[in-house]
Specification:
Blueprint (H helix, E strand, L loop, with lengths): L1 H23 L13 H4 L3 H4 L4 H9 L8 H14 L3 H31 L4 H16 L4 H5 L4 H23 L2 H15 L8 H11 L7 H23 L14 H20 L8 E2 L14 H15 L4 H14 L12 E3 L8 H14 L1 H5 L3 H25 L3 H12 L1
Antiparallel strand pairs: 1-2
């Protein structure tokens, strides 16, 4: 029985690992986007500098083009030193990161739900599998997978989810090494992108979700390293004078930034439900001084409405957890926090955050399947399979847009001009 269970578990992980590789394998044949950031994000003095102590110190001690991503940069340096400027190697590496992340999503959701429900039943397994499946096939992740310069988001999620898994293991076993590994992996995740600064916020969210006692002093003592980590990161970035902390609010009135944030959140959520017209660039619709189009004023109202619904249904722990998981992980990319002066939203920014949405949808979909099946099981299955086919097909088609810089620029002209 145990052997059979082991075989099933390995088979699930193998299938989840292979699925995204099949969907996105064509990107391995793509070239570098030398007219779209790859020319300086991938091919810079750190990549070309090779593996030596001087270059290693420079990678971790300098900010380059408003980017601080030493762990991701180190992977470029290693790949270039071993294989040269072969785009197939770089694309394959990023694709493998994504495949690993799909497996990590399954493991994270499964362990999290087991810790909450104290059960390892079909509901837990089905929700974990469905969450990983949606993450694997959803086309909103295509940008992160197909664009070499976005590999920092793949790695940030790889280390971030690994850190959360170690924390869950610590909660299960009390093993201090698991706790230490969790903190170390958080640091590595930050070494990929500043967006990882939001990850320590997920730790108390997990504590709440699994029912830990917030009056327990031990719980708060455990959070000290994470708090110190955030403070140290902030001080470190200020020391390096990373423009991540420079606000550009002078370009637009403050209230317009909140409208932009509402727009971005609404777009992210709607495109997670039914992705249409995905783009590689969602620019701010106006230049400073221009009037904001009237349609944008509906977005703050929609966000307030959704927040009201969430508060009304606050007793539904999964809904609250999924919403906050999404919000915490996307928070640092929103205006007025984001430093971007031309981009109002980007698919890659919700690569990790989307798990909160997928897990919530999977939980309620599986839990209320019987009610949905009252419309007819065959009908429900057909709709679900059709939805997965749509997501997968769109992901395959979408990946071709990232074949070269000319296709990206053509898309920008068609949709925005």
């Amino acid at each position: 029985m145990m052997k059979r269970s082991f075989i099933v578990r390995i088979s699930v992980y193998a299938a989840l690992f292979v699925l995204p590789i099949i969907i996105y394998f064509s990107v391995v044949g793509h070239g570098f986007l030398t007219d779209w950031y790859d020319q300086w994000m991938v091919f810079n003095r750190y990549t070309l500098g090779g593996l030596n102590v001087h270059n290693f110190i420079a990678i971790f001690g300098e900010v380059y083009h408003e980017q601080y991503s030493p762990v991701n940069q180190l992977t470029y340096t290693v790949l270039y030193s071993l294989f040269g400027a072969d785009p197939r190697v770089f694309h394959l590496a990023n694709l493998l990161y994504h495949a690993i992340n799909v497996c990590l999503v399954y493991a994270f959701v499964k362990n999290l739900l087991e810790l909450r429900t104290h059960k390892n039943n079909k509901l837990v397994s089905c929700v974990a599998l469905l969450t990983a499946l949606l993450f694997a096939v959803h086309p909103i992740n295509t940008e992160t997978v197909a664009w070499i310069s976005a590999s920092k988001f793949s790695l940030y999620m790889l280390f971030g989810l690994s850190a959360l898994l170690c924390y869950l293991r610590y909660l299960k076993s009390g093993n201090k090494w698991s706790y230490a590994f969790s903190v170390a992996l958080f640091i590595l995740s930050f070494g990929c992108t500043e967006q990882a600064m939001a990850l320590p916020l997920i730790v108390p969210l997990i504590d709440w979700f699994v029912g830990r006692n917030f009056r327990d002093k031990k719980l708060w003592i455990e959070k000290i390293p994470f708090l110190l980590l955030i403070i140290a990161i902030c001080l470190f970035m200020l020391l390096l004078r990373n423009p991540f902390f420079v606000q550009y609010r002078a370009y637009y009135p403050v209230w317009q930034y909140f409208v932009f944030s509402s727009y971005a959140l609404t777009e992210y959520l709607t495109k997670l439900v039914f992705p249409v017209n995905l783009l590689h660039l969602y620019p701010i619709p106006i230049v400073p001084g221009e009037s904001l189009p009237a349609r944008f004023f509906i977005y703050p109202f929609m966000i307030v409405t959704m927040a009201g619904i969430a508060v009304y249904y606050r007793k539904y722990a999964m809904l609250v957890f999924g919403l906050l998981f999404f919000l915490f992980n996307v928070l640092l990319t929103l205006h007025p926090i984001s430093t971007s002066r031309i981009i109002i939203a980007a698919d890659r920014h919700i690569y990790l955050a989307g798990i909160g949405f997928f897990m919530t949808a999977a939980w309620y979909g599986v839990k209320y399947f019987k009610r949905l099946a009252s419309m007819g099981k065959i009908f429900v299955y057909v709709v679900f399979v059709a939805y997965l086919i749509y997501l997968t097909g769109y992901a395959v088609i979408r990946s071709e847009v990232w074949r070269d810089s000319d296709l990206l620029k053509k898309e920008l002209r068609e949709y925005h001009f």
